[in-house]
Structures are given as structure tokens and as C-alpha cells.
UniProtKB/TrEMBL annotation, chain A:
It is found in: Cell membrane. It holds the Pfam family BPD_transp_1. Keywords: Cell membrane, Membrane, Transmembrane, Transmembrane helix, Transport. GO terms for cellular component: plasma membrane. It is a multi-pass membrane protein. GO terms for biological process: transmembrane transport. This is ABC transporter permease. Its main location: membrane. It comes from the Bacteria. InterPro entries: MetI-like, MetI-like_sf. PANTHER family: ABC TRANSPORTER PERMEASE PROTEIN MG189-RELATED, ABC TRANSPORTER PERMEASE PROTEIN MG189-RELATED-RELATED. Belongs to the binding-protein-dependent transport system permease family. The keyword Ion transport does not apply.
From TrEMBL, chain B:
It comes from the Bacteria. InterPro entries: ABC_transporter_permease, MetI-like, MetI-like_sf. The keyword NADP does not apply. It comes from Nonomuraea aridisoli. One of its GO terms (cellular component) is plasma membrane. Residues 67-279 form the ABC transmembrane type-1 domain. The chain crosses the membrane at residues 7-27, 73-92, 104-125, 145-164, 209-227, 258-278. Its main location: membrane. It holds the Pfam family BPD_transp_1. GO terms for biological process: transmembrane transport. This is ABC transporter permease. Belongs to the binding-protein-dependent transport system permease family. Gene3D superfamilies: MetI-like. The lineage of its organism: Bacteria, Bacillati, Actinomycetota, Actinomycetes, Streptosporangiales.
């Protein structure tokens, strides 16, 4: 790009601006975009969008972090300060103590990772059976599993809770893990991917004497890394973010998740301490997003039908 | 491998999933139906009460208001959460710079645990030192009561819900927009179609399926709003933000009336099933 701009002959008084590079065609044609006014409007819109997005989505988070670095007096001050006058990390430590965040965070991570391991074992095995072993009534089972996607979780919350109470799974992580594994969407994604694995690959392994478990472990799983990554991240993120079921199932303060713990104690502490707690709860997910951005964005559209 | 043996192995692989689905997905649906005709406190054996739970639910003073609020919430959330992401996606798709940044930023709130967004906005809505009233003040406008007034409480909840959820819809639309063949735009342009007619006659028909799908998903998702009223308003002021899901929670856990909660759940399920059926029909009709 820079070499192109440098070699272009100068026209008139002003240096010709760099053309806006068009990778693929969209609604506005490249020609229109690179006209004199097109270019001005483009940069104006770009600037407006970047500023609006930063204000709408980044500024609230900035406010949360700086709110946690202010003193209680400063946080309640009118008008508020844009930058903390005396930034302090004390509210983070206070929040850690008051909310007992160490325990909450450890619980949440434990539940999320447990849900992930259990979900993967159960759903991968089921999707493999439905896709490659094709048992009698396999399609009926698949249909019934997918039908659960039509029923929003909130609607069966009460009977699910009643069932969990009946089984004595209150305050037991299995009360979260079993329902998490009954995830029709995971089965759907995994089965669809397994369906695309060529039959020859599996037959070759079978001729070499591999049983079904061996085929799953040594052939199917290694080629399914992309979908396993997507399903893993979504399972962990969903479990970490989940609120309503842990609210009902994990009622002991020793066993609460971080979301529920924050919701229970938030009214009893000062605003800067609440913000400190929120920052600590948000950081793990923001790190996950930074690291797995690609997988998450790919997974978002993996399930949807192409328009 | 014999047929019997293959079936046995297959069901061996399936049994864990069958257990989870049977006990924690399929049975609760049946249980909801049974529950709605019973009175139970989960300790003593349940007794059959016929349609009393449905009667009780309908006669609850907040029942009709809850449905009205849910419909209103869904409608407002559709305006904000459905139209806005599409327009945002249209604009983002035209931009050639800062794409990664914008996509990252719009999805960031979706990654946060909902409790973080909700408690953060509770602070913003604070009538005193809250950010929103301070901004209004800065702009020379009078302050609003936000969550404390029955006229603004519901829209305040919609605002949080939109902020924390719009990222996923935006990215899904963006992916759909990128799948539109560029030749269609070129052809439309040759035929003399301006920008708005290109949107009207190329973009929207090309993304029709995903637009329909997202419409239904949005309706179903917003019909079960819970965490926003639960954390922000407790259904108030004057029941202005009681949603059906929240009322269900109250029946079960404030009044310990699980049967009545089950009855309300059945009604919500029926309404949502109608939407699901409509969705299935509309998407089936599409040749794509």
C-alpha cells in the first residue's frame, strides 16, 4: 500500500489521498467509495462508529474499573470524576474479603471445568454413536434431543428444580453438571461434524482391527479438533455465566458461584467494593475472549444456517 | 460386526446422554404438565387439585400485567435488539478499517457474566451520582428516575438487555452479509439501483432466512427475561416490570406454590411453542 502511494504522480496542489482498499464488494461500490465525497463520508462514518462503539461498549467498563479504584466518598460524589483522584487498589482487596471471592471463584471454575469434562464425555460419545454407529431408533433419539432446543430453559426451570430436589442434588455440583450435559445444541454441532468425516477413514481403521472406542479416540477426535474447540469454549463460558440454575441449586454460601454470590451480597457493601467484585468476576471471561476470540466468533456462526 | 452387537455398542455410547436427557430435559417437561395439576410443597406427598393452579395463576393480581410487560419488553427488545444490530452490521460491513476492534468491542459485553452487566447498570441508573443522570445533567437535561419510575423502568431493563446481548446478533448478521455474492450488488448497480434500493432488493432478500430465524430466537429469548427484573427492580415499581418468568419464580420461591408456577410455565411453554411452530413453517417455506 505505501509503495503504491509513494510512486503515484502528484496531482494538483494536494497529495492524492491513499485509496480505500476494497477487499470484497459490499453495498457501496468501490468506485463510489473512492470518489471525492465518498471518501470524506467514509472517514466521517468510520470515526463516528469508532467513537460511538468505544463510548457505548468500552466506556462502561472503564467506569467499572475506575469506580473500583475510587474511595467510597469519591464514588458517591456529584459530579463524578472522570479519573480517580487518588487511585487505590484497596476496594479490590476489600471486595475479595467481603464477598469471599476466593471461594466463589474457585467454585465457579470448578463447576465450569467439571461441566466441560462431563459434557464433552457424554455429548461426544452420544454424537459419535448417532453419527457413526447408527443404532436402531437413532433418528428418533436425535429428534427428541433437538426438540429440547425448542423449549427455552426458563420454562422448565421449576420442574427441573423439583427434579433436582427429588434426587437430593441440591448443593451438589452434579445438580449443575447433569442438566448441562443434556445440551441438544452440542449434540447437533458434534454430530454434524462427525457426519462429514469420510467413511473410508473409519473403515481403514476398522480393517486394522480398531474397535469403536479406538476409532473414536484415534481417528474421529483428532480430526474433529475445530468443533471440539468451539463446543468446549461455549460450554465453559455458558457454565461460567450461568445464573438462574446455580441460584436455585447452589444455595449454601460456601458453594455459590461468583454471579450468585455477588448478587446476594451486593446490597450490603459500598459501591466501589461492588465494582471491585464485578471487575474480578469479569476478568476471567475477558481473558478467555482475548485468547479464544477466533474460536468464539467462528462458533457463533457455526450453528446458524447460512443466509 | 453383527447388527445386535453394533446396536449394543451404540447404546453403550449413548447411555450417559440418554440418562441426562431423560432425567434433566425430557422428564421435566412431563413433570411440568403433572405439576400444574398438583399442589405440592416438595415435602409432603402432592395432591391433585385439577385446574385450581391455572385459576390461581390467572387470578393473581400481577398475572395480566406480567403478560403485558413481557409482550412490551419483547417488543421493545425487538426494536432495540433486532433492528439495531442489523443496521449496525450493515454499517460495519461497509467499513474497511478497525474491523477487528469493532467486532471485538461489540461482542465484549456478551462475554461478561450477566450479573456484571446488570449490577454495573444498576449503578449507572442511580438517580444521584449515577452515570446516566450525570450525563443528562452535563447535556443540560433534567434527570430521570430510571428504575424508580413505572414509566421508565421497563425501558431501562430493555437498555441493559440490549447492551449485553446485541453483540451476538450483530456478528451473526455480519457473517450473513459477507455471504452475499458481490455480483448481485454489481448487477443492481448496473440497473441503476441506489444504495437504499440495493439494501431493499439485494441485502434483505439475501439475508431473509437468517433475519426470520433471529426474529424468532429473539422473541423466545426475551420472553423469558428473568435476571434483569430479579436484580434491578424486583418487579416494581407497582408491578411495572413483573415479567412472566419473574412471576413464575415468585410463585415458586416466594409463595412456595410450585404447582401454580408449573401452571404458569405451561402457559408460557404453549405460547413459545406457537412461535417455534411459526418459525419452522416460515423457514420451511423458504426455497433456500
Amino acid at each position: 500500500m505505501t509503495s503504491v502511494a509513494a510512486t503515484r504522480p502528484k496531482r494538483g496542489r494536494a497529495r492524492t489521498p491513499k485509496p480505500i482498499h476494497v477487499q470484497f464488494r459490499t453495498i457501496v461500490s468501490p468506485h463510489q467509495l473512492n470518489s471525492r465525497w465518498g471518501r470524506r463520508i467514509y472517514w466521517l462514518v468510520l470515526a463516528a462508529v469508532v467513537v460511538t462503539f468505544s463510548l457505548a461498549f468500552v466506556f462502561p467498563l472503564y467506569w467499572m474499573v475506575t469506580g473500583a479504584m475510587k474511595t467510597p466518598e469519591e464514588v458517591a460524589q456529584v459530579p463524578p470524576t472522570l479519573v480517580p483522584a487518588q487511585p487505590t487498589l484497596a476496594p479490590f482487596f476489600e471486595a475479595w474479603e467481603l464477598f469471599d471471592i476466593g471461594t466463589l471463584l474457585a467454585n465457579t471454575v470448578y463447576y465450569a471445568l467439571g461441566a466441560w469434562v462431563f459434557c464433552m464425555c457424554v455429548d461426544v460419545a452420544a454424537a459419535y454413536a448417532l453419527s457413526k454407529l447408527r443404532p436402531a431408533f437413532g433418528n428418533v433419539i436425535l429428534g427428541a434431543m433437538l426438540a429440547t432446543l425448542m423449549i427455552p430453559p426458563m420454562v422448565i426451570l421449576i420442574p427441573l428444580y423439583v427434579t433436582i430436589v427429588d434426587l437430593g442434588l441440591l448443593n451438589n455440583p452434579w445438580g449443575l453438571w447433569f442438566p448441562a450435559a443434556a445440551n441438544g445444541f452440542n449434540i447437533f454441532l458434534l454430530k454434524r461434524f462427525f457426519d462429514s468425516i469420510p467413511r473410508e477413514l473409519i473403515e481403514a481403521a476398522q480393517i486394522d482391527g480398531a474397535g469403536p472406542l479406538r476409532v473414536l479416540w484415534s481417528v474421529v477426535l483428532p480430526v474433529s479438533r475445530p468443533i471440539l474447540g468451539v463446543v468446549s469454549i461455549f460450554t465453559i463460558v455458558t457454565a461460567f455465566k450461568d445464573f438462574v440454575l446455580p441460584l436455585l441449586v447452589m444455595t449454601d454460601s460456601e458453594k455459590m458461584t461468583i454471579s450468585v454470590g455477588l448478587s446476594q451480597t451486593a446490597g450490603a457493601v459500598t459501591q466501589n467494593q461492588v465494582m471491585g467484585g464485578l471487575v474480578i468476576a469479569a476478568v476471567p471471561m475477558i481473558i478467555v475472549f482475548f485468547v479464544f476470540q477466533r474460536h468464539i466468533m467462528a462458533g457463533l456462526t457455526a450453528g446458524s444456517i447460512k443466509g | 460386526m453383527g447388527v445386535l452387537r453394533r446396536n449394543l455398542t451404540a447404546y453403550g455410547f449413548l447411555c450417559a446422554a440418554l440418562f441426562c436427557f431423560t432425567v434433566f430435559a425430557w422428564y421435566p417437561m412431563v413433570r411440568e404438565f403433572v405439576l400444574s395439576f398438583q399442589r405440592t410443597d416438595l415435602i409432603n406427598p402432592p395432591e391433585w387439585v385439577g385446574l385450581a393452579n391455572f385459576q390461581g395463576a390467572v387470578q393473581d393480581p400481577a398475572f395480566w400485567e406480567a403478560w403485558l410487560n413481557t409482550v412490551e419488553f419483547t417488543f421493545l427488545a425487538l426494536v432495540c435488539g433486532y433492528a439495531v444490530p442489523f443496521v449496525v452490521a450493515l454499517v460495519l460491513n461497509e467499513l474497511r478499517h478497525a474491523r477487528a476492534y469493532l467486532r471485538f468491542v461489540v461482542y465484549l459485553p456478551v462475554m461478561l457474566p450477566p450479573i456484571v452487566a446488570v449490577l454495573l447498570f444498576r449503578w449507572f441508573y442511580d438517580p444521584g451520582p449515577g452515570l446516566f443522570n450525570q450525563l443528562l445533567d452535563l447535556a443540560g437535561l433534567p434527570p430521570l428516575a430510571w428504575l424508580d419510575s413505572s414509566s421508565t423502568a421497563l425501558i431501562s431493563l430493555v437498555l441493559v438487555a440490549t447492551w449485553m446481548n446485541m453483540g451476538s446478533a450483530t456478528l451473526i448478521y455480519l457473517a450473513a452479509l459477507q455471504n452475499i455474492p458481490p455480483e448481485l450488488y454489481e448487477a443492481a448497480e448496473l440497473d441503476g439501483a441506489g444504495i437504499f434500493r440495493r439494501i431493499r432488493h439485494v441485502t434483505i432478500p439475501q439475508t431473509r432466512l437468517i433475519l426470520l430465524l433471529m426474529l424468532m430466537l429473539q422473541i423466545v429469548a426475551t420472553m423469558q427475561v428473568f435476571i434483569e427484573p430479579y436484580m434491578l427492580t424486583g418487579g416494581g415499581p407497582e408491578n411495572a416490570t413483573v415479567t412472566v418468568a419473574y412471576l413464575m419464580y415468585q410463585f415458586a420461591f416466594s409463595q412456595m406454590n410450585y404447582g401454580q408456577a408449573g401452571a404458569l410455565g405451561m402457559m408460557l411453554m404453549l405460547v413459545l411453542l406457537v412461535f417455534a411452530a411459526l418459525q419452522l413453517r416460515w423457514t420451511r417455506e423458504d426455497p433456500a
